[in-house]
Structures are given as structure tokens and as C-alpha cells.
Amino acid sequence: ILKMTELDLSNKRVLIREDLNVPVKDGKVTSDARIRASLPTIKAALDGGARVMLMSHLGRPTEGEYDESQSLAPVAERLTELLGRKVRLVKDWIDGVAVEEGEVVLCENVRFLKGEKADDEGLARKMAALCDVFVMDAFGTAHRAQASTHGVARFAPVACAGPLLSRELEALGHALENPKRPLVAIVAGSKVSTKLTVLESLSKVVDRLIVGGGIANTFIAAAGHDVGKSLHEPDLIPEAKRLMEQAKAKGGEIPVPSDVVVATEFDASAEADVKKVDEIAADEMVLDIGPDTAEAFAESLKEAGTIVWNGPVGVFEFDQFGQGTRILAEAIADSSAFSIAGGGDTLAAVDKYGIADRVSYISTGGGAFLEFLEGKTLPAVAILESRGSEQAAAAG
Ligand code: 3PG
């Protein structure tokens, strides 16, 4: 893949696709992690003398319509503050924008345009015509084959990977392709069904796959325990059994918690009780792993060579069900392993327990992070790979 850092950008029109899809409330950005992650790329392009145009989506607006509530205006404002220079938001940009040297223009939400999501060729060609160099830097949207992530890369005069995208691919590749062992992954979330492919691919490569949340409940049931009224998927019990056997056959394991935190209600004031896994009552639901389990899992994290974390193991929004996630988060922070965390809820847990500085790499990807873990090819990366070889051949 051709990299932005290898190119002379001086006075070039450089169109950068970032993932600035951030949460916005009352016209203000409430978490600017993705904006901050894009800053080194934007600064590098400016330092290289580029005329910078930024593209991003925000939310999932109705296609073909301008919708003020999903405008990138709050992002432009935050970006202006962080960059320390004016970022000009342009509402109508697809037919051409004049950008001065040293200027940064933010093109309004790409998902207001008809054809963006369908990866329409006509739209992609128009985007490509805006630039001399297209920089794909939106790792968080690299799993979407859309006009601004994939189509434009086919037709731009030059298409390359931005520094953030390159960093993400390196960090994730490092964790999965040739990991320092033991490799321990934590995959948690409410349903086995939505993370089945991740569980499938990780169960073949990891030494230990720690499951949590509703996913763990299905595994607890698969191990033959009654899970009371816990969220779980009875239909997927055979799958859970198969995954446990598959992990074992490859020399790894998917451990089942020995104790759990239960409650009879699900709310902020619910009373938490610790139970052995074979003592869950019919009216109880599992909302966290228990203290013995958390300690045992924490030990294996401390001894790990590589850790991949996606998903809090309990309902950590309520403190009485957050101890398992806190203990694992602290073990990750204390571990000398190369650790990588990704996904919206995971990053909220990383923030809540204040370990952001002690995780080796925090991914900006949600869905893209998961698809990478599943071993899927990200279409916006694949097109850069094929353009890369073609561009290298053209360069002689
Ligand atoms: C994300 O937040 O995961 C990305 O920005 C992709 O957004 P999407 O799921 O709406 O395509």
C-alpha cells in the first residue's frame, strides 16, 4: 500500500477521508477521540504544503437530503479548536471547492449525497476529480465499500493510506498475525449471534478466549449450568459447545466463570449478590463475572504476551456490576503484554477506569475493528492494495 508519508504533497489538492463520526449532543461533540486521532494526519498534510479537503460521514441520515441535525458543523468547531486554525465547513462541495494553500476545508456529511452508500461510480468519480491525491485514513469506516471510502480510491489520480489507517493496520496485524504468546482475547457483549464470526476466528488462534456479558451466559448454559433469567441464547448452546471444543483442539481454551454476580432486577439500584456458577436461582440474572473468576482472568492477563479486548464483561454502567470489568481493565493496564482495545463500549470502560495511557493501542474502529478480528478483508484497504501495486508499476 502506498503511504501518504511517501508522497510530495506540496501545493497538491489532497482529499482525506477521515472517520469523524463522533457522538454529538445539543450541537456539541461529546467524545472527540476520533477527531484527535485524525490530527497527526491533517498536520502532516499541512506541513507537507497540501491544500487539505476532509471528508467524513456522521450518523446515518436519509440519503439525498441535507439534515441540520446530522451536520458536521460541531465537528468543524472542535477541529478548529484542536488544530488551532480555522476549519471551513463547505455545504455544497461535490461539484468543486477552491482551497488555498495551508487551508483546511471540511466537506459536509458525505451521507447527504445520493449514491454514497451504494458506492455509486458517478459520485466516486466526482470525488476523485476534486483532488490530486486521495488519502484513505478512516480506519473506522474501512469495512464499508462506499463512494468516499472505496469508489473514490479507484478513480483518484493517486490513492494512498493515511498515517492513522497505517498505524491501525500495523497494530492489529502485530496483535494477530505473529503475536507474542500467550495471546489472550476478551470478547464480551450481549449476544453470541452478533459476535459469532469473531468468536469463531479467535477461538482458532488464541491461547485463552475470555467471554463476558450475555455471551458468557450462553457458554455457562453450554457447560450445563442453569442461568436463571439471564440474557442468553439457548439456540446457540450447540455453537458455544463447538467453539469450546474447537479452542481445545487448537491448544487453547474458553474458560467458563466459576462465580458470577447476580441480581433479580436490572437497574441502577439493583442489589448485587455473588453466586457460584452452579447456584444461580431461577429468578436471578447474571450481570457480571464474580470476584474469583475476575482474579483468575486477571492473572492470565498479567502473564499474557498479547491482549485483544473487545467488550466489557459486565454491566459496568452500574458500579455494583462493574467490578469484573474494572479488575480486568486494571490487569490489562498492569500487564507488560502488547494490548489492544477497540469498540465503543470498550473505550467507555477504558475511560471510566482511567487506563487509556496504559493500553498499548486503542483502535478508533468499532465495526471495522471487529471485522478485522474476524479476519475479513476491509474493502477500503483492499482497493488501496490493488491501487498500490498498479501505482508502483506505473512509477517504474
Ligand atoms: C462506526 O462508527 O463504526 C463507523 O463510523 C461506521 O459507521 P456506520 O456503521 O454508520 O457505517
Layout: helices, strands, pairs:
Elements: E1 13-17, E2 24-25, E3 28-29, H1 33-47, E4 51-55, H2 73-83, E5 87-90, E6 104-107, H3 121-129, E7 133-136, H4 147-155, E8 158-161, H5 163-176, E9 183-188, H6 196-205, E10 208-212, H7 213-222, H8 237-249, E11 259-263, E12 273-276, E13 285-289, H9 291-302, E14 306-310, H10 323-334, E15 338-341, H11 344-352, E16 361-362, H12 367-373, H13 379-394
Parallel strand pairs: 1-4, 1-7, 4-6, 5-6, 7-8, 9-10, 9-14, 14-15, 15-16
Antiparallel strand pairs: 2-3, 11-12, 11-13
This protein binds 3-phosphoglyceric acid.
SSE-based structural type: alpha/beta
Q: Mind telling me the CATH superfamily name of the largest domain?
A: Phosphoglycerate kinase, N-terminal domain
Output the number of helix runs. 13
How much beta, percentage-wise? 15-25%
What is the CATH-assigned architecture of the largest domain? 3-Layer(aba) Sandwich
Helix content: 25-40%
Overall structural domain count:
2
Level-1 CATH class name of the largest domain: Alpha Beta
Shape: elongated
Low-confidence stretches: none
State the total count of DSSP E strands. 16
User: What number is the mean pLDDT?
Assistant: 96
- List the ligand species: 3-phosphoglyceric acid
The first-to-last residue Cα distance is 16 Å
